Amino acid sequence: MRKLKFREVFVSRDGFAGAKITFNKTVFCIDVLNTQNCDYALYTHLHPRHFPGYDNVDTSRVVSPSIGFFRVKPGDAISIGNVKIITVDAYNISETGKEPAHPKGFGVGYIMKFDNAIVYHMGDTDFIPEILNLKTPIHILFIPIGCENVLCPEEALEVVKSLRPSITIPIHYVDKGFLHTFRYIAQPYTQVVVL
Amino acid sequence: MAKDVLEEIYSSEEVVPPLMKWKYITVKEYEAIYRSSIADVALFWGEEAKKLVWTKPWSKVVDGQPPNARWFVGGEINAYYNIVEKHRDSWIWGKPAIIWENELGDVEVATYEDLHNLVSRLAGALKSFGVKAGDWIAIYASPTIESLAVMLAAIKIGAPFEAIFTGFGFYEVAKRIASRKPKVFVVSDGFYRRGKVVDTLSVARKALDYSNHRCTTIVIEKTGSTRLRENEISFDNVKNLGKDSEGFTAPSNHPLFGLHVAYEDDFKPITHGVGGYLVQTFSTSKWIGLRPHDTYFCTVWPGWITGITYVVFGPLMIGSTIVLYDGSFDYPSADRWWDIIERYAVTLFLTTGSALRILSRAGNQYVKIHNMDTLKAVLVTAEPLETSVWWWTYRVVGTGSSPAITSIPEKLTGRIPVINMYIQSELATFVTGNLINYTFTPITPGSVGKPIPGFSIDVVDDYGKSVRDLIGELVLRSPWPSTPIEAPQDFWSRWVEGFYRTGDYALMTRNHTVFVLGRKDCVLKVSGYRLSPGAVENVVREVLKKNVLVVGAPDKTRFEVPIVIASESMDKEIVKKIVREYLGPIMEPADVRIEIFDEKSPRGYVRRRFKEMLWNIAVQAKG
């Protein structure tokens, strides 16, 4: 698996929407299904492609909105060692009045602050107003682009234009067409890296 | 031979790639721009120089007669500020400056801010080793963030550097050490090639021992921990020895960097000065298409002029992101470069004709599995490019998967420009080529385009008279800002009647399109690398005590390959082994042939006769 080093952190993708972030030999996993090599498992929400099931996690080292030792909600900030983790909103906006796949409060995104690097995993979300209000600079952005209850490439571009991350790593897509569209339109505003 | 090359590369077609449909200019428009630029080159380059930040303005743009013309006389400039530090207060500061990937797939990213922090610490460290402005630094390392940072740190403190290509063996490295006498020598412990470790540290140590030069060696550890010797210090320990906050302000003709350039009898040092070089590099980098939001992948390493100018300097001056790939193009398979272009959304790709020739033979399937729609141009350097390879690159690499303007992907109509350009170490930058951001005229496949504004290019016959549609020699009729400030007699003697003879055969059409046809002399062009036949002859003489000749024979893949001509029987494998070990694998002869030659005749004359003979044999064999 390809690993990217940025300042003091190593990041890699793991699975459909998963990210592994290694800092000072501690491995933080976000939405990773096989957590065997993870020191801490963070879940944005508990849908199957993001969460391996209750029987497969050690809840004492889990951060999530609904299970585990660290139960978080948007706006929370916790520290694990020298790492500060800020929880932010991640949800869908219903355009038809129907209950969305990810209603507000169901899931979260994580902003992880290391010594000199800030990593943001957006979780499953649309382009929501809270993203525009983020004040922190983002160095590495894990962004869902697959259009299925998450951002579509054009919406993901708006996020990139708003946050201006140094590096953007697309996740949460099946059809590579979404990747190609996103990469083409977003590259002037960030450095897209396909891991 | 030039005639035979011309048959492969000549074309009278004119192609407007769909993406340039509304951007190209006519030949008449080009002529107006070009003629005005060369009517007064001092005026032209003086205006370009104003685009850099000068600490003290020059009193005269150009002074003296070529080849001793000096540029921006009286001017002072902080080179490092103009390359990196000027971006500090812009959005560029937080964007990646370098993305490095090795063969194993390890990736490291450094923003402009990160690069600056590392450079400042290295500059402090170099100073702590006693390096002062004017002292040389030598670098023998594969392209990494660290090795580029060392070059920039040297620039920051006014120390000229020489980057030595890692394909060279210890004898060539020793030659460069002996010539530059570096205060600090920076080496990598090794790098991965086709899955194996290439041990550069051992070669570097052997070279130091051979040259009998003593200096501090900084070791960049990339392949594992190494037991360091006396005078060797790990890069990781060096980083924290100090910090330099001020860039060096240099007079315009202060040495910036040097290279050893191939002449017939050996590789010899040339040095470029800071002012003229930076002016030429900044302008041509913009013109070839680099913009701050470009992600740029160049496969030519620093160690060759294209790699120095268009990796270390140009893209950073513009604020682009550089992809540095430290590995083989065909490992684990022949699609590695296409994969890199896809994964990092590369917008501008620069490579050599030889590489495209090899990749075209590998098959279209390696290209087709990748989406490279982000590419806006493929730039090609270093050697004549056959029309067949140009068309393959244009259609197969350059069409992309999505239609744009008038392109039709399924018909492989082509979409982006494929631009072959001409460069030479002595000239420092490209001097011909279709310029995406300036004078873009329709492309003639096989050509190196038209002269770039500011460079007075001509093709002349043996008497120095301009010729059109006939084979002659490529010359420059006016000096250029980066005329070397130090060069061997071979360079000075190329100035005849006020113009500079490049040593390359060429044909220029009446509408200024140039076709470069290979060396007129016996300097070798192997896979785009300019190599010295004399260097091989010298090593055979020194080690085997045999007097041999080396000439280039035509090769379908590498353009030329070195052939050793011996007048008595020699063990081919031993000759090859010695050349590989002493000079490096790129110099390894393809063959050793027994031919009687008159050892008393001038060596250059005999080489030429053999070169003609080998080219004639190849032409006859082709039928």
UniProtKB/TrEMBL annotation, chain A:
The lineage of its organism: Archaea, Thermoproteota, Thermoprotei, Desulfurococcales, Desulfurococcaceae. It comes from Ignisphaera cupida. Pfam families: Lactamase_B_3 (PF13483). It comes from the Archaea. This is MBL fold metallo-hydrolase.
UniProtKB/TrEMBL annotation, chain B:
It comes from the Archaea. Gene3D superfamilies: 3.30.300.30, N-terminal domain of ligase-like. Residues 94-232, 277-480 form the AMP-dependent synthetase/ligase domain. Residues 30-82 form the Acetyl-coenzyme A synthetase N-terminal domain. InterPro entries: ACAS_N (IPR032387), AMP-bd_C_sf (IPR045851), AMP-dep_synth/lig_dom (IPR000873), ANL_N_sf (IPR042099). Belongs to the ATP-dependent AMP-binding enzyme family. This is AMP-binding protein. It comes from Ignisphaera cupida.
